[in-house]
Amino acid sequence: MRHTARDLLAAISAAAALAIATPALAQSYPDRPVKLIMPFGAGSASDSIARIVADGLGPRLGQRIIVENRPGAGGNTGTAAAAKAAPDGYTLVFAAPGPFVINRTLGGLPYDPEKDFEPISLVAKLVNVLVVNPSKIPVKTVPEFIAYVRSKPGQISYSSVGLGSSQHLAAAYFDIVAGTQMQHVPYPSGSQLAIDLVSGEVPVSFQLIPNVSSQLAAGQVRALAVTTKTRSKALPDVPTMAEQGVADYESYAWFGIAAPAGTPQAVIDRLNREIVATVADPAVQKRLIEIGVEPDSSTPAQFKAFIAAESVKWADIIAKAGIKLN
Fold first, then answer.
1. Interior CA angle at 264 toward 259 and 265, to 5°?
2. CA distance 54 to 36
3. Which of 2, 44, 134, 151 has the smallest number of Cβ neighbours within 10 A?
4. Pair 25, 267: CB distance under 8 Å
5. Residue 31: enclosing H or E segment and its boundaries?
6. Among 22, 21, 15, 55, residue whose Cα is nearest residue 36
7. 268 and 238, same structural domain?
8. pTM score, two decimals?
């Protein structure tokens, strides 16, 4: 096909306009409130994290960040809605392991987590802690726990808030690494789970720290180890799995912010700068640590690579553990 001088001139003009518009867009964005879709219910740990970050991010952007809860299907409903939103930086999504990593392995998704989103930055990690009912599980260390569970194969049960949840996968992964065999008891909500954990009905859980902080403070459950490579700021006296001889094991929930694919790079860059600054703010960090959360941030490229690595890691663990939806 032959290109005329007029075609060439039009192409050059369009490229020049884009080059001029990109910096202008970065300077003017945002000129109205930004919506952050939260794919889980109000009052959840992830919801609390999102609202703390939104409170800190809004003033930096000069606009309100409106957190909109759209729960359902393990986070898939809200995440799917975000995937279809206009890629203009005014609709973002709070990214989490379920809808971005785990659910793609457990079943089909109405979106592609890696193709339909532009990762912007991590914001936090939420540590799992191995807790036991001390009257039912008479151990104080992880080696003692492993020996105890191995002596009762298939007889010790652990709780979670559902199939494929952070708690479920942390325990299933532990079974693989430690050579133990525990029984999974999923709960529809955390309230009954906590009651049964304290009563000893289901005496073990790989819980997220905020979910058991009050029970730990009251001495109703005992923390044996956190599941990250370093100790948690929220539970500094609780050792890691690695410190107690369980190598090559790490499990935690993570959260970040992403935008629909096609969002202008200038907008992504602006959001990344402000999110990183927000997470580094001492006041924001204090609020996150108080609820048992580890502040974290990244570049867009680092977050994208992290999601890809997490997808490979958990697909392998889910396959080895034989976890299926039905």
1. 95
2. 8
3. 2
4. yes
5. none
6. 55
7. no
8. 0.85
pLDDT tens for 151-209 read 999 999 999 988 888 999 999 999 999 999 999 999 887 789 999 999 999 999 999 89
CATH number for the domain harbouring residue 159:
3.40.190.10
Domain's final residue, options 218, 244, 270: 244
Averaged pLDDT of the chain = 91
**Residues of the chain whose pLDDT is less than 70?**
1-26, 325-326
Contacts of 263 (CB under 8 A, 6+ apart): 87, 88, 89, 118
Position 164 scores a pLDDT of 87
- Encoding tokens for residue 282? 């001492």
Both tokens assigned to 297: 């941030």
User: What is the predicted pLDDT for the residue at 193?
Assistant: 92
Q: How many domains does the chain have?
A: 2
CA triple 126-256-273, angle to 5 deg: 125
Mark 90-110 as b/e (b = at least 16 C-beta within 10 Å): bbbbbbbbbbbbbbbbbeebe
Q: What pLDDT, on the 0 to 100 scale, is given for residue 172?
A: 96
- Three-state DSSP at 91 gives strand
Torsion angle in degrees (nearest 10) through CA of 86, 295, 195, 153: 100
**Model pLDDT, residue 195:** 94
DSSP reduced 3-state for 178: helix
Q: Mark whether 131 and 157 lie in a shared domain.
A: yes
Alpha carbon separation from 25 to 31, 89, 274 (Å, rounded): 10, 11, 16
The tokens describing 7, both together, are: 């075609």
Domain holding 56, by residue range, is 33-125+253-321
